Amino acid sequence: LLHAHYMPESTEDQHEILEKLTVYCGKSVYNYSENETDPLKWDFYNSFYFAYTVVSTI
């Protein structure tokens, strides 16, 4: 039922569902990934900086 009527793009529906689950279960239910930032990416600049740091240390 939840899978059939759940739209992942709608944050209002997400909050409503989590609030109803919190009331029903009696324990706090929270979306921990809501405010997470994307992890840093390993790109050319970062790899060059890392290599430079390693070589200059030696």
The end-to-end span amounts to 61 Å
**Average of per-residue pLDDT values:** 77
How many individual helices? 3
Specify the overall morphology.
elongated
Task: State the low-pLDDT regions, or none.
Answer: none
Helix content percent band = 55-70%
Counted beta strands: 0
Based on secondary structure, the structural category is: mainly alpha
Rg from Cα: 21 Å
Give the SSE map.
Elements: H1 2-5, H2 11-25, H3 44-57
Can you describe what's shown?
- The radius of gyration is 21 Å and the shape is elongated.
- The chain has a domain at 1-30.
- It is mainly α and 58 residues long.
- It contains three helices and no strands.
- Helix content is 57%, strand content 0%.
Kindly summarize this structure in a few lines.
The chain has helices at 2-5, 11-25, 44-57. It has 58 residues and is mostly helical.
